Amino acid sequence: MWNRNRITDLLGIEYPIFQGPFGGGLSTVELTTTVSRLGGLGGYGAYTLSPQEIYDADQQIKSITDHPYNLNLWVNDHDIVDQEHTQKQYQKTAEIFKPYYDRLNTELPPLPPSFESRFQNQLQVVFDIKPKVFSFMYGLLDADVIDRLKNQGTVVVGNATTVDEAVALENIGVDVIAASGFESGGHRPSFLEKAELSTTGTFALIQLIKDKVKTPLVAAGGIANGRGIKAAMTLGAEGVQIGTAFLATEESGALPVHKEFLFSEAAKSTTLSRAYTGRLGRGITTDISGELLYATDQTLPFPLQTTFMAPMRKAALEQKKHELVFFWCGQIAPILKYKSATALMKSLIEEADELMR
Prior knowledge:
Shape: globular
Order of helices and strands: HEHEHEHHEHEHEEHEHEHHEEHHH
Distance between the termini: 8 Å
Strand order of the largest sheet: 1-9-8-6-5-4-3-2
Structural class: alpha/beta
Number of domains: 2
CATH superfamily of the largest domain: Aldolase class I
CATH architecture of the largest domain: Alpha-Beta Barrel
Number of strands: 11
Low-confidence stretches: none
Largest sheet: 8 strands, parallel
Mean pLDDT: 97
Strand content: 5-15%
């Protein structure tokens, strides 16, 4: 049976279908619990949350379902070098983005305050709440941390965008590797090389990693239906992670206008850009992402660029100048059909059942 393998046995789930753990307020308790209750693995992205907020979200999820879910954090949660570097970069960034602010009749924001890493405090909460599944991105954990998580009964999932990253994750002892392909929407969680150099497509990446590691693989990127599930598992994955299709459902935390764009003609064109957060991510092509492309030396370090762009996003949404708003979106968006997470999940299961027979 296609839905019985090492991953379903390890996680105690019925179907090896992961819902992408969205950050930045896009994850919701409703979406996470819906996917988990239907036999998949709901995901909750928590990298922007305080330890108390992570604890509260966990309590809400567990009050609704006792099915496992995946709590996700970012190991490396900023790219700041020092204040002097940031100050110099701000002058350049302000000059580049001023014309876009002018289009919105909005004042350029001042240099954002510096940012202190929250990861260690967030990780402590993971030890406190003991989630069934914990996934991490943008780096590696110490092997003793992995051991401690496993000893408390938590399944550990690492995210890789290259073969070398997958090998590094296997070497520290993760239980599952999520292989994130070029097609994926949102941020590219590369950590050994620059994200621009780590852009292999999902179906090539699965085969390349499968040839080098023994750890069970989850394919992420370019999957939104049963055909995608069958293709990924035929090539060696034992599970799939689906992001954009779940982001488009009414249960996600995306703005209504974001969901409208995911089902629109605009979703046919996506771009990888650093312009909006300082880290490379895929979203629907905008005037800014099209004109600045990767913007590798034109932005503040993550997450300061996000703070710098917040007034522009707010003004553009209020003025309905959506050509200046970056809506996260994967390349698979043009085939999306479902606006209900329940309908999407049932369709994924039924299509995969039929095709895998």
